[in-house]
Amino acid sequence: MxxxxxxxxxxxxxxxxxxxAHQMAYQTDLQQVWLVVSPQNPFKPxxxxxxxxxxxxxxxxxxxxxxxxxxxxxxxxxxxxxxxIDTLIYLEEKFPQHEFSVVMxxxxxxxxxxxxxxxxxxxRTDFYVYPRPGFPxxxxxxxxxxxxxxxxxxxSATFIRDQIKAGNDIHYLVPEPVREEIEKNGYYR
Length: 189
Ligand SMILES: Nc1ncnc2c1ncn2[C@@H]1O[C@H](COP(=O)(O)OP(=O)(O)OP(=O)(O)O)[C@@H](O)[C@H]1O
Ligand SMILES: O=C(O)c1ccc[n+]([C@@H]2O[C@H](COP(=O)([O-])O)[C@@H](O)[C@H]2O)c1
Description:
Blueprint: E1 2-8, H1 15-27, E2 32-37, H2 52-63, E3 69-72, H3 84-94, E4 99-105, H4 107-111, H5 118-124, E5 127-130, E6 145-147, H6 157-165, H7 176-185
Parallel strand pairs: 1-2, 1-4, 2-3, 4-5, 5-6
Enzyme class: transferase
EC number: 2.7.7.18
Keywords: ATP-binding, NAD, Nucleotide-binding, Nucleotidyltransferase, Pyridine nucleotide biosynthesis, Transferase
């Protein structure tokens, strides 16, 4: 099966993430998209990061009922911070029957050359990229990129965390079960 690995902190998962995952799973040749919740992104600070099991639970709530989407804790059991090349190699060994690609927003392309073993990564796997406002679909690396033609989504987890801290309502910015879970537990206040 052709599977897209969609890596992220998902702190928290939001409507932008869900649309990206859904478009990739239903408008490209990918047959499934797995949301890989990264416990610790190598480029991002760990402060303000909700516990990874809570982030995974929110991701599962967000995709429930969508056949081609999965959320996985695979990086919880791998060394930290989470490097994509390591996770990819691990998954290729564990699931030799599948073909894995990487799904990302176009902001990720800007820093791709700084990722661990970037040259090896782009030789080893294809990239499916969703446009993000302000970030062109280009990289200095020789990567095989499939771009989707889909609406720009100017939503970020940072914006959502800021809204919650300010006491503002986040209806529609995140799926409803995610909003309810965040509110019930007082996350990000
Ligand atoms: N609105 C969006 N449009 C396209 N891609 C997105 C969007 N939001 C997130 N992504 C992509 O989702 C992946 C995971 O992103 P991440 O979990 O860091 O979310 P974020 O909203 O960028 O978070 P933060 O605001 O905390 O930095 C990245 O590949 C990122 O490019
Ligand atoms: O492998 C790397 O060196 C590497 C560097 C930065 C980010 N990543 C992966 O990309 C995911 C999304 O990153 P970001 O910065 O767009 O939120 C993140 O959760 C990691 O899994 C991976």
